[in-house]
Design brief:
TIM Barrel; 579 residues; 7 helices; Immunoglobulin-like; 6-stranded antiparallel β-sheet; 8-stranded parallel β-sheet; 17% helix
Length: 579
């Protein structure tokens, strides 16, 4: 079995190996202090403004900068590094977890590569640019959080209400690793809990090679296959493995080798699906009906904005979620570092992953009317949906496909949300069919909240400001994918800028209102309509939005025992319908 995470101690932030699904022994973190400069030009600055702590965006307090990058500026990063003796095994790769939004990377004054899109990882080969001794690394960044081309999530230059501070630059880890001339890339893992089979495929870069696969339970070899050609599938019998589920998140190690290159990964033996009972549908894990009781997770981390103060903070947050009885998080229009998904895998927290919405500015009338009426517009009308520019649609597809490729091996990820509340939505039925071909192992919510075109696996509803009343369409899983948004801060009269959907004067009033919401509105929908999933808004306070069940520093606003009782009652009601 995979053991619990180990955390690094020291001055370098987020120093743990950032990619647990594809881990190598060669690892040199470049997190830490870099030179930075804000400039009107992409030309190398004559001098730098100071030091920035990578991987925190310059807008964050933890970066040590606290300044917004504007759309007409360039953000320059610079640092030097020297490779340890024996580090270079043939090729040296530099890895970036994410850089918002567009960047050019230079090593010793030569362009190593460019990347567009602020949320996905990328790797560059800098072998031929390296010098003996000290090397200079520069990154030149541009970012327009109001761009109609790129996915932007909840970022805004005019933060307020449900919109938050725009971030830029390096906001995930940067690291070096070394590989032999022929090395491994693009491992793909497909478990099948019904057959007890594990399908593996990997390819080689730099030349042809044969690949060996091994699966371990601790030190015990469970299954293996040798000399598999690059890119070809290998199917192993892993029927001796225990199943993965939210109640029993069993994980097993995978070792992949090709010549001198060795990569470690892991898997959980699980299959996600749907089941039907008397015209009502639910989600399943390994064929067993499972109610998804979740929280809307915006992925904001206080003083680090997009980036947690430490990986332990990420892990501890997830432990608290599980302790309240929730078994799912909906990651809302953001992609987290891969360690976050690993911690969900370890703890048994199901993940709903939103794609990166964008397009032209969202029309306020739709945002304001959406909670009250069921909007159903033609999402093939690109102009009205804010997707008139074909580059915008192309970029959405590129980022959606990249998200699937990046997160494919995450054990806990069970569902993709393609569009949220009509924001930049287009051709949602075609998009859903396309994504399902890329990854048929997950479920799909093609249009969360409103703008439902009748596709996907989920009849997805958002309800604010009115009572929860739902109707099962008899074709898809009925899910309340956003609701609630309660607060008890008592600050609304003193500070009109704070936001929640409903405010209470005390912690007790807040907790009683939550109990009534779940027990008198949600629970009857579970029994009568077959409601099979809920996503409460939201996990934590984010800037001015104060409707989290946790504060921004992860203090629970209510009684842990009463939260667990709510979830236990919902699970019991669901089981009476589907089990």
């Amino acid at each position: 079995m995979i053991k619990q995470p180990v955390f690094s101690e020291g001055e370098i932030p987020l120093a743990e190996y950032p990619r647990p699904q594809f881990r190598r022994e060669s690892y040199l973190t470049l997190n830490g202090l870099w030179d930075y400069a804000f400039c009107p030009s992409s030309d190398t600055p004559q001098s730098y403004d100071g030091k920035i702590l990578v991987p925190y965006s310059p807008e964050s307090r933890l970066s040590g900068v606290g300044r917004q990058l504007s759309p007409n500026e360039y953000l320059h990063y610079r640092r030097t590094f020297s490779l340890p003796n024996g580090f270079n095994r043939g090729r040296v790769l530099i890895n970036f977890g994410a850089c918002d939004q567009c960047c050019t990377v230079l090593c010793n004054g030569r362009v190593a590569g460019r990347h567009e899109g602020g949320y996905l990882p990328f790797t560059l080969d800098i072998t031929n640019m390296l010098a003996d001794g000290e090397n200079e690394l520069c990154v030149v960044v541009t970012d327009d959080a109001s761009s109609h081309i790129f996915g932007r999530g909840k970022q805004s230059y005019n933060a307020g209400g449900i919109w938050y501070t725009a971030t830029s630059g390096l906001w995930q880890s940067v690291w070096l690793e070394s590989v032999p001339e022929v090395y491994l890339a693009d491992l793909k893992i497909i478990p099948d809990s019904f057959s007890g089979k594990l399908e593996l495929a990997c390819r080689t870069e730099g030349g042809k090679g044969v690949i060996n696969y091994e699966v371990y339970d601790g030190d015990r070899l469970i299954a293996s296959e040798c000399c598999v050609p690059s890119g070809e599938k290998c199917v192993l019998d892993v029927s001796d493995c225990l199943l993965w589920s939210p109640e029993s998140p069993n994980l097993y190690a995978i070792v992949v080798t090709c010549g001198a290159d060795r990569v470690e990964s892991y898997f959980g033996l699980r299959t996600f699906g749907m089941a039907e009972r008397n015209g009502k549908y639910c989600f399943t894990v390994n064929g067993k009906p499972v109610f998804h009781s979740g929280l809307l997770d915006q992925g904001y981390w206080g003083d680090g904005i997009y980036t947690p103060s430490s990986n332990r903070e990420m892990y501890d947050c997830l432990v608290k979620v599980k302790s309240l009885g929730f078994n799912m998080l909906r990651k809302h229009i953001k992609i987290e570092p891969l360690l976050w998904y690993y911690y969900c895998d370890v703890l048994g927290i199901l993940v709903w992953q939103d794609m990166l919405n964008g397009g032209a500015p969202y029309k306020k009338i739709r945002i304001n009317l959406g909670p009250f009426i069921d909007l159903r517009l033609n999402d093939k009308n690109y102009k009205s949906m804010g997707r008139e520019d074909p580059l915008s649609r192309k970029q959405y597809m590129a980022e959606a496909e990249g998200t699937v490729a990046c997160l494919f091996n995450c054990v806990s990820l069970c569902l993709y949300t393609l569009f949220n509340e009509g924001w930049g939505q287009f051709d949602s039925l075609n998009v859903c069919n396309h994504m399902r071909k890329l990854d048929p192992t997950r479920l799909y919510d093609h249009a969360s909240g409103w703008q439902d075109m009748g596709g996907g696996d989920v009849c997805s509803r958002h309800i604010y400001f009115k009572k929860v009343r739902l109707k099962n369409d008899g074709r898809r899983v009925l899910a309340l994918t956003e609701f609630g948004g309660y607060s008890f801060s008592g600050r609304q009269s003193a500070n009109k800028k704070v936001f929640s959907y409903r405010n209470f004067s005390s912690a007790e009033d807040y907790m009683c209102a939550l109990e009534k919401l779940y027990m008198r509105q949600v629970l009857p929908s579970v029994i009568n309509q077959g409601l099979a999933a809920t996503v409460y808004t939201q996990l934590s306070d984010v800037e001015q939005e104060i409707n989290g069940i946790f504060t921004s520093d992860w203090k629970c606003k209510g009684s842990e025992e009463r939260f667990r009782r709510i979830n236990d009652a919902i699970y019991a009601a669901f089981n009476s319908v589907f089990n």
